[in-house]
Every structure is written in C-alpha cells, then in structure tokens.
Amino acid sequence: MNGLYIHIPFCTKICGYCDFATVAGSARLFGEYVDLLLREAERRFGENPHFIRHLETAYFGGGTPSVLPPREFERLVLGLESLGVGFRHLQEVDWECNPDSATDENLQAAISLGVNRISLGVQTFDNELLKAIGRRGTAEQARDALRRILRLPDLSGKKIRSSADLMFWLPGQTLAGFERDVRELAETGIGHVSFYGLTLNPRTVLGMRFEQGKISLDEGLYARMYRSGVQILQDYGLERYEVSNFAKWGEESLHNRNYWRRGEYLGLGPGAHSFRGNQRLAAPSRYLEWKKWVLAGCLESKMEIDRLGKKERLCEKIWLSLRTREGLDLQTLDSEEVTQISCRKIDHWVRKGYLQKSGTKISLCGDGWLWMDSVVEDLIP
Ligand code: SF4
C-alpha cells in the first residue's frame, strides 16, 4: 500500500512540549509554502510515477494543517491533483486540525476537496492544564469543534470519519482528571482516539523546566493513567489496535497502519520522511534549508538517507509489528531472521505475562503494552 504525507509546518503558537518541525505565526509564508510544496511534489512524483498511480491514502499533518487558509489549501490540493493525486478516489484522506482553527469554513473547504477523515488535537478538556502546557485554544473550543465535526457528512453523504488526540502525564494532571477527559471524549461517540504520555525533550520549554527541577512527574502515575485510559476506552467499544491508538470496528487509521506494516510512503515538506525499498529518507527539517533544497531541485543525494541492512530490517519488523494488536507473525520472517529471535527470550516474556503466543504469532498483552520498549529491545538481536 502507498501513502502520501503532506506536512503543513505552521502553528499559531509553539506548544511548550513541541519538538516537531514547526514554524510559528507565519501567515506571510503560506503562499510561498504552497508553491514550494508543489515544486517538490512535481520533482519527486516525476521520479516515481508508479508510486503516485498506486496511492491509497494521503495525510495532511503538521504543524497545524487547519491554519492554512481555505484558498491556499485548495490551491495545494488542486495542484497535487494536477500532478496525479486523485484525492477523491483514495481510500483515506486525513486532515489534522486544532480546535481554535477548526472553523466551519475550514472544515467545509477540507471536505469539499476530498478530506474524509478529520483528526482533532484536543489534548485535555482542562483549561488550566492547556495553559500549563502552552496550548492555544480552550476546552470549550474543543467541545464545540468536536460537536460540529461529529455531525459532518463526507462527500458521499456518510458521516465523516474522525479521531481526537488526548495527552496524559501532564504536569499537575491527576488520575481522576485524565479519566474525566477520556470519558468525556468517549461519550461523544467518536470512532477513534489516540492518547500519548507527555515526552519531555530538553530543547522544549517544558523540557527545560523539568531539567531545572521546576516541574516533576510521578513515574508510577504514568502506568496508572495508561491502564485506566485503555480500560475506559474499551468500555466504550474503542479497542486498542496499536499502543496509543484505539478504534471502533472499521475506524482504524489506514494511513498509520501502513507505517506499522512497513508499507511505502512519500513525505512532502520540511523534515518529512519517506520510505521506499529499504531506504528511509528525510528532507531537511529547517524551513530555510528545505526551501533551498527545493529550489536546487530536491536532490536525493542531499536528503538524509538511511539504508536498512538485514539487521535493521529485522529490528524494524519486530519494533513496528509488536506495537500493533496483530503482533509479529514469525512466519512472515525469512529463515535467517527467525533463527535470530531467541525462543528463550520469547518464553521469558510470555511467563512474565507481557507477551502472548498464538500459533506462529507473538503479540503484547497485559503490562507488556506499557513496557513495550524493554520487551522489544530484549528481542532485537
Ligand atoms: S499544535 Fe502540534 S505541531 Fe503545533 S506547536 Fe503544538 S504540538 Fe507542535
């Protein structure tokens, strides 16, 4: 399966924990950015026409795609269509938005151009916590955006598919507060939820505060929040199909599933990653460097390229499969790869209750989901 990722790096304000390739408050760059993206697409699609012909999903991610004004978004979509991307025929076209820019005008423009799945960044319904983590927007805006999104039809008249993100382990967040957030979101009847524990990179505002001892986080609370969030979502029919993703039947993200299944994808925009053959490629992540790279013809030799050898491929297969409910089917590995995975280690994690075996498959279970990194690191040869 082939996926296209289109990065929209703009955000109205940089959140206190954000470590993505984003540019704050840059309305003057919107027009230039769309021109550059189309230039990159023309160049890179031209090198790989077969890939675009067999595209099945597209994902507008960020940054915040919803800050792009409808006329620029339309120009981008029509430009990509003229280069061969048939948005209206793809299985899934995702569009990320934030509550403060999920206006009716933006939502309608996205849907009329072929978007059929909307992901809303809620993070929490607690205004104090939103302030503490430096997020723009309020809980009321998130509730209002959710209500409107959940009523929207897609182009075929069916209810649009939707998802919302929550965060946990935020400074000052209590277990009860997080459970309230999860319950409130599940009560809306939404078909897909992602939740992520806060990660603190020392380069971010919150990361620096943590390093200076100005905020503290309780290690034990992380596990309690994760377990409890999973349980609440399950009670509402949202099953975990990946370590941080939960869906009702048929509501899983096809685009993200392609990443976990090691399907091919092509990323456009600063810092966007692509996966082709056994190579992982990344464009320059800083806006100005990316712009120079595009203007110089998007030379692949100037991208960061990671060529995966046998060992790296096996590590990826273990790492990516085990994050999903399906787990790792040992039958899909070649004979040399199978011999590299120690049965003794698998049995150790099965006895501990972190892994389960079913025929030729192994998958996480119990607290294995929480300690996935330790299990995977141990299994990786
Ligand atoms: S909205 Fe998302 S991408 Fe933008 S600054 Fe916040 S976390 Fe980063």
From TrEMBL:
The keyword Cytoplasm appears for this protein: yes
Compartments it resides in: Cytoplasm
Repeat in keyword set: no
Superkingdom as given in the UniProt entry: Bacteria
GO BP terms, alphabetized: porphyrin-containing compound biosynthetic process
PROSITE patterns assigned: RADICAL_SAM
InterPro entries, A to Z: Coproporphyrinogen-III_oxidase, Elp3/MiaA/NifB-like_rSAM, HemW-like, rSAM, rSAM_horseshoe, rSAM_sf
Cross-referenced SUPFAM superfamilies: Radical SAM enzymes
PANTHER family: COPROPORPHYRINIGEN III OXIDASE, RADICAL S-ADENOSYL METHIONINE DOMAIN-CONTAINING PROTEIN 1, MITOCHONDRIAL
Task performed by this protein: Probably acts as a heme chaperone, transferring heme to an unknown acceptor. Binds one molecule of heme per monomer, possibly covalently. Binds 1 [4Fe-4S] cluster. The cluster is coordinated with 3 cysteines and an exchangeable S-adenosyl-L-methionine.
The protein's name: Heme chaperone HemW
Organism listed in the record: Fibrobacter intestinalis
